[in-house]
Write a structure and sequence with these properties.
- The protein is mainly alpha-helical.
- The chain has 6 helices and 2 strands, in the order αααααββα.
- A two-stranded antiparallel ribbon has the order 1-2.
Length: about 160
């Protein structure tokens, strides 16, 4: 490889690394807007930040400026995102009961959408679920809503 090609690849890798390091701020923004960090793994963020710290130390050890810059930015952005996640999961957030949609709208900032409860297939996360009735055939997924509606139909 020619020295010019190597420099071009180094610059591209640095720009790509900075983009990746900054991208975690999108998650911080999403958590802040939604008012919850329940759908984000704090353990993942801690490992992510730890990785940037190790690479930053390595970059400092070898004196490689692009490695130092990329991982210093990554460490800073990851730490900010981790701090937002932990702040939203503080003792009051963990112990707080679920809010209704009306309460969410009341707590929303002016001009901002109300934070939504995380859902899976239209059902709030953590709602009771009955095991699959049709596991053998892989056809029927049966949850408490379906059982309730079938029971009502059977009574008619």
């Amino acid at each position: 490889m020619t020295p010019g090609t190597t420099q071009l690849l180094g610059a591209a890798a640095t720009l790509y690394g900075l983009g990746g390091a900054l991208s975690v701020l999108l998650q911080a923004r999403r958590m802040h807007v939604r008012g919850t960090s329940g759908d984000v793994s704090v353990r993942f963020l801690a490992v992510y930040v730890g990785g940037f710290a190790v690479w930053l130390l390595y970059g400092l050890g070898i004196g490689d400026v692009p490695v130092i810059v990329v991982h210093a930015v990554g460490l800073l952005c990851g730490t900010v995102t981790l701090a937002v996640a932990l702040r939203l999961r503080g003792p009051s957030a963990v112990a707080a009961p679920s809010r209704s949609a009306g309460e969410d709208r009341a707590l929303a900032r002016p001009g901002q959408p109300a934070p939504r409860q995380p859902e899976h297939r239209g059902r709030p996360l953590g709602s009771p679920k009955i095991p699959h009735l049709g596991d053998a055939l892989g056809i029927i997924e049966c949850d408490s809503y379906l059982v309730t509606s079938l029971a009502r139909k059977a009574r008619r």
